[in-house]
Amino acid sequence: MVLRELLLLLFFSHLIISSQSLEFTKPHKIKGPIKTLVVLVMENRSFDHVLGWLKSTQPGIDGLTGQESNRVNTSDPNSHQVFVTDDALYVDSDPGHSFQAIREQIFGSDYTGLETGPDPVPDPAPMNGFVQQAENMSEGMTRTVMSGFKPEVLPVYTSLVTEFAVLDRWFASVPASTQPNRFYVHSATSHGASSNVRKDLINGFPQRTIFDSLDENNLKFGIYYQNIPATLFFKSLRKLKHINKFHNYALKFKMHAKMGLLPNYVVIEQRYFDVDILPANDDHPSHDMAYGQRFVKEVYETLRASPQWKECALLITYDEHGGFYDHVPTPITGVPNPDGIVGPDPFYFRFNRLGVRVPTILVSPWIEKGLVIHEPNGPTPHSQFEHSSIPATVKKLFNLKSNFLTKRDAWAGTFDSYFNLRDTPRDDCPEKLPEVEKALRPWGPREGASLSEFQVELIQLASQLNGDHVLNGYPHIGNTMTVGEANQYAEDAVSRFLEAGRTALRLGANGSTVVTMRPSLTSRTGGDYGQYPQSQ
Ligand SMILES: *[C@@H]1O[C@H](CO)[C@@H](O)[C@H](O)[C@H]1NC(C)=O
Ligand SMILES: *[C@@H]1O[C@H](CO)[C@@H](O)[C@H](O)[C@H]1NC(C)=O
Ligand SMILES: *[C@@H]1O[C@H](CO)[C@@H](O)[C@H](O)[C@H]1NC(C)=O
Ligand SMILES: *[C@@H]1O[C@H](CO)[C@@H](O)[C@H](O)[C@H]1NC(C)=O
């Protein structure tokens, strides 16, 4: 008897204690219908290039009519006029997308003094220098930058736009390359980067991210990567406590979706390296967009089949326009500098105008079929949709108590209201999207090719993760690698970094610390890279 009472007492006190601690750690309530936002950022294509021709079947979309053109010489009104075409299939060479190239594309000339000098900035931006800039790059580039895809060539996007929503006023956050724009997606600033900033790439970018805000609010996030997660450019994501939020896409994404385990904020990263067994699927030229289409199809169908589908939204966007023509003027009025940081010499860019318009698609059973979303209404008269709209929307969707990350996400339009137009989720969303059978590119991956600028940056990141950055070869390690070698190097570096982090956690290391690897540790198994020491 006495024993039994004692046990009961113990049982009850245990219950009381655990319910108290549950109360304490319970994530705060998410009010709206969306509990999971999945973000997928593809590479280097403009809106008109990818979705512009959808206007022919959906006139509400601000796309192409066929009348859009650029002249070969913007200062000569009689020079040859090049019109948009609808025959894009694959793009072999990479159009211009340096800071200067983009400035010329947008304003028709590379105005010196545009940023600092007395020259007035033309508003609206004429968007007339794409051809002139391309002419200067290579033979044939002109046709490439003015080309767009026929809707039937990209059947997965055509189907998603028809079934869900397209945003036809979503801009890159910075008129510059991949990295700065990818930073805005998760932190509403590039911390002053208007291109590759080597020092910060080594140490990791220090700014606050939306991941930090989610963490503070006891909400969950996960990054599903393929070769190497570019999100590891953020210093705070390298902390030990976040190590277990990095998941191998192939092994975990479908499994988590099927088991209803997807976290609140899901970032899916592509394969950035084009290799035979697993061709790149990021849509970057010269990669085959057929793989990008199959990848998007797989992500959609996985979410559609998940028990979490009715609480899910998927946002697909592109980091930047990649040098391709777009006719919508880039916003240049009322855009706030996020954090007071001015870009480096020689441009001293003030981060006060946006980049070119990029394709953006919003998918959810809470979204009305065939919705076309234009400008946001607020929070300011000049607010626009741009990559900072993602953290801004996450804050509202999940009712985060943390502050905005910067002045930019406080300013950016949000898309949470589009989930509140219905009382119940739709039940007519397709389970399958069209098959993409044919390759769009007549050849396969070229593993022997040298690396693009972004791939070199990814290798710099990899060598930071595995400790090789202290070796002499840094930062030029990637310059001598082929795409095939780089892929292997990056994947090895990531798995070693994550493995070391998990071990450190098991050994009780402080979760706020970052694992720093020594190259001697690395070269044990990574000794294939000739010029680096095999071991000490
Ligand atoms: C473009 O046109 C201007 C004005 O006619 C002319 O001065 C200039 O030489 C032309 N540029 C080229 C590259 O042909
Ligand atoms: C083309 O490039 C040359 C040098 O690379 C530059 O001097 C010239 O201004 C460029 N022309 C145009 C029209 O951009
Ligand atoms: C996209 O363009 C940037 C230049 O703005 C380039 O550095 C990068 O290599 C491209 N992306 C990829 C994945 O190659
Ligand atoms: C872990 O490190 C952080 C930052 O260095 C420190 O503030 C914290 O007190 C440490 N926690 C423990 C349990 O040592």
From TrEMBL:
Gene3D superfamilies: Alkaline Phosphatase, subunit A. GO terms for biological process: phospholipid catabolic process. InterPro entries: Alkaline_phosphatase_core_sf, Phosphoesterase. One of its GO terms (molecular function) is phosphoric ester hydrolase activity. Residues 1-21 form the signal peptide. Keywords: Hydrolase, Secreted, Signal. GO terms for cellular component: extracellular region. Pfam families: Phosphoesterase. It is found in: Secreted. Belongs to the bacterial phospholipase C family. This is Non-specific phospholipase C1. It comes from Kingdonia uniflora.
